[in-house]
Amino acid sequence: MPYDVIIIGAGVAGLYASLNLPKNLKVLILCKDQPWECNTFYAQGGIAVAKDKKDIPLHINDTLKAGAGMCDEKIVKLLSQESLEVLEDLIAKEIPFDRDKEGNLLFTKEAAHSTSRIIHAGGDCTGRVIHSHLISQISHTLWKNATVTELLIDNNHCYGVSVLTKRGNYNLYAKNIILASGGIGALFEYHTNAYTISSELHGMILENGLELQDMEMLQFHPTVFVKTPYARKMLLSEALRGEGAYIIDFWGKRFLFDYDDKGELASRDKVARSIYDYKLQLLQKYPANSQESEVYLDLSAFSKDYFQTRFPNIARNLNAFGFDLPKDKIPISPAFHYCMGGIKSDERGKVLHMDNLYAIGECACTGVHGANRLASNSLLEALVFARRATLDILGKESSLNKREFPLHTQTLHKEQDENLKTILRNLMWNKVGIIRKKSDLNEALGGIEVMLQSGVGRLLKLRLLTAKNIVESALKRSHSVGAHYMQ
Ligand code: SIN
């Protein structure tokens, strides 16, 4: 039976889209693993919103400034103006945002915001709290462990998707398809993303001759604890620095002021780049992994009680690694965090040149983030454009275009793929990372081409297509702007 809408992804964008579609529509949400394996679930800081009508121009200005001249101003205005309605709706949905004793919303600050305007929930568990509330309210069907392997596209129309589940392979057809599949974290050795976030849908877009935009614009989070055995490294929220934590070397020097007079609160790209550069200098003098070669997050501005209450998730995770907080200093590194670029889509979330395909959330590029996303604008973008996409779907006549596609038969994984994925992650981190050189980018491109020609499985091929697009976009932009820094 065909669907009215198929949504790929069960992060905040996908779930909120489904909540905006009435129960009488036949809607299916597909997610690759368990629904919580998405970037929303691990988001700590919060949701940036205009605090009131007066704050809208300031929020717009901060977003445009962070985006380094590359944002689409019209879209940024929509984002900020509609943040007030979205917030009202989330409150109506009883999301328990943190409040003071009088019941007023608590706002925190992160880098490059001119005021405290970030709402949060569960202290530093914003993503988890929102995710569990939204998922408890959905009334549509959700399939877990469902890997999308193909977009069934022909002549500007998406007929449906091929999906692999434990029960087998299916072609599913729908009047409208919404992509909400997240970004590209699994392409990098160090990243903060859920392990499912691997850019396969981006690869399918390229396969179908559709456009990705600004893919060289990758955001690296400055403060991540990377000495863990897991693929997803441990994010240490920027809200920590917003509320008083600072960054020091082994000798206690706050070296970030040598790079920018805003120190720890300079924009995310600057802080990440400065830490990366400082660590490279330390590594020339001291052996790798020695205490002297590390850069640290100092949490001594917090009392033990305040820290446990305000940042319970970070406290629990770091305690599990043996840190005594807030006394101990935490060795940190930048790590890949967010993809500003993505599937080119318009102000309705509609994919360019397609009549019934939408892309929302991190997988999309609406032009809102430009060359550098303002902290905590990502959950907001997912919410605003989920609503816009569903309003567009509900406001138009959608009919089912009938067309049968053959079931896909390609091998998804091949034996060599695990090794090649490690090589790819390494290549992307070392050659397409925080500080880029033309020669490194060309080397990465060569490596990716070789892997693409080595007969890899379908899912790795899709990752490689996305990686290739990132490198090619980086090579096309020879000058530094925002997060794209060419040496
Ligand atoms: C953080 O909590 O530092 C991350 C927030 C974001 O990515 O916007």
From TrEMBL:
<keyword id="KW-0285">Flavoprotein</keyword>
<dbReference type="InterPro" id="IPR003953">
    <property type="entry name" value="FAD-dep_OxRdtase_2_FAD-bd"/>
</dbReference>
<protein>
    <recommendedName>
        <fullName>L-aspartate oxidase</fullName>
        <ecNumber>1.4.3.16</ecNumber>
    </recommendedName>
</protein>
<dbReference type="Pfam" id="PF00890">
    <property type="entry name" value="FAD_binding_2"/>
</dbReference>
<dbReference type="InterPro" id="IPR037099">
    <property type="entry name" value="Fum_R/Succ_DH_flav-like_C_sf"/>
</dbReference>
<keyword id="KW-0274">FAD</keyword>
<dbReference type="GO" id="GO:0008734">
    <property type="term" value="F:L-aspartate oxidase activity"/>
</dbReference>
<dbReference type="InterPro" id="IPR027477">
    <property type="entry name" value="Succ_DH/fumarate_Rdtase_cat_sf"/>
</dbReference>
<feature type="domain" description="FAD-dependent oxidoreductase 2 FAD-binding">
    <location>
        <begin position="4"/>
        <end position="379"/>
    </location>
</feature>
<comment type="similarity">
    <text>Belongs to the FAD-dependent oxidoreductase 2 family. NadB subfamily.</text>
</comment>
<dbReference type="GO" id="GO:0034628">
    <property type="term" value="P:'de novo' NAD+ biosynthetic process from L-aspartate"/>
</dbReference>
<comment type="pathway">
    <text>Cofactor biosynthesis; NAD(+) biosynthesis; iminoaspartate from L-aspartate (oxidase route): step 1/1.</text>
</comment>
<dbReference type="InterPro" id="IPR005288">
    <property type="entry name" value="NadB"/>
</dbReference>
<keyword id="KW-0662">Pyridine nucleotide biosynthesis</keyword>
<keyword id="KW-0560">Oxidoreductase</keyword>
<dbReference type="InterPro" id="IPR036188">
    <property type="entry name" value="FAD/NAD-bd_sf"/>
</dbReference>
